[in-house]
């Protein structure tokens, strides 16, 4: 008798789970997918039922529960439950007394997927064979699973920091993004199975988490890199990705990407822009309040002035160096993003997200190999040679697919 290798065993297990998943209850809120597929799509989240967050609990603690869940199935169940409870206002956007949730350095992950070095990832190709299209969808399934974790991580990691003064709308936005990403993962996973494959059939890499780890200390850095750079890059490549399926006769996948996922990704990029603007305004408005306060006013006891703590908050001091939020964004990209922003850009999709050319053209690569520094420089004043003290790897698949 010959024993299966660990990789073979993992593949057999994933294939077995894929077969089991054929008998699942219908997905909620999947009207578009139902019409796209001409049948009821099915959920990946019924075989496992983790305990739901408690009524009246904290959205931050609920976010940590998703992050620490080990499988995509468990994360999906918790994501839908938590989003439902948030919409019903059965969770609160503060931490509860005596319970500071510990955000994991790295989320729990599905061990169905064999991980490889990003540099050793085989290109999925142009979509002109079934396996190439399966590889393309598989990489998207994996990226969307990371996008779920990233959405909860931004809530759990930064939601309780008083210096950001995050209102309920911030949590509304990223709970919605988390649920969108979860549906994207489930829809693409369903599509992958319809194509005769399954999640775990191909290797994947986790480079996307590297950019999250490099921005784990700073909400503005996280917003700039994940939501205003990677999400925007996803908009850039979506038309060519759709074309790979359409020209090769896979209209089903093309429509799923074009009619559902692309439109929602625009709103994710918009959320990044919205909250980076919020932080920039907050830093400048608190400075103006402080400078206009009477010398006799106490910044701690008088709520009309900037607090003593705001005066020494590093991210605020950094933001105040830039009169425009776009210039702050350029500096954040220069500091935390390795590589360059390469054209062609999807100017229409980016504009729909509120991400006009002034945000990215000054730091766009003049060629395919260099980027222009931008602090205070306009598009006509591009300078080559970005230096990057804390780089985030810009892997091929990460950049090529967005979130
Ligand atoms: Fe997505
Ligand atoms: Fe997204």
What does this structure look like?
Residues 288-308 have a biased composition (Polar residues). It comes from Coccomyxa viridis. Residues 287-310, 370-393 are annotated as: Disordered. It is a single chain. The protein has 403 residues and is mainly α. The protein is built from 15 helices and 4 strands. The protein has helices at residues 6-20, 31-37, 59-68, 72-87, 130-158, 168-194, 207-214, 219-246, 251-292, 308-311, 314-319, 325-336, 347-352, 357-360, 396-401, and strands spanning 57-58, 91-92, 372-373, 383-384. It has a two-stranded parallel sheet. It has a two-stranded antiparallel ribbon with strand order 3-4. Helix 2 (31-37) packs antiparallel against helix 9 and helix 6 packs antiparallel against helix 9 (251-292). The longest helix is centred in the last third of the chain and has 42 residues, at 251-292. The relative contact order is 0.11. Mean pLDDT is 80; it is low at 1-46 and 367-401. The protein binds fe (ii) ion (2 copies).
Biggest beta sheet summary: 2 strands, parallel
Q: Helical region count?
A: 15
Percent range for helical residues? 40-55%
Distance between the termini: 44 Å
Average of the residue pLDDT scores:
80
Protein name: DUF455-domain-containing protein
Organism: Coccomyxa viridis
Biased composition (Polar residues): 288-308
Region (Disordered): 287-310, 370-393
Question: What's this entry about, in short?
Answer:
This protein has 15 helices and 4 strands. It is an all-alpha fold and 403 residues long. Helix 5 packs antiparallel against helix 6 (168-194).
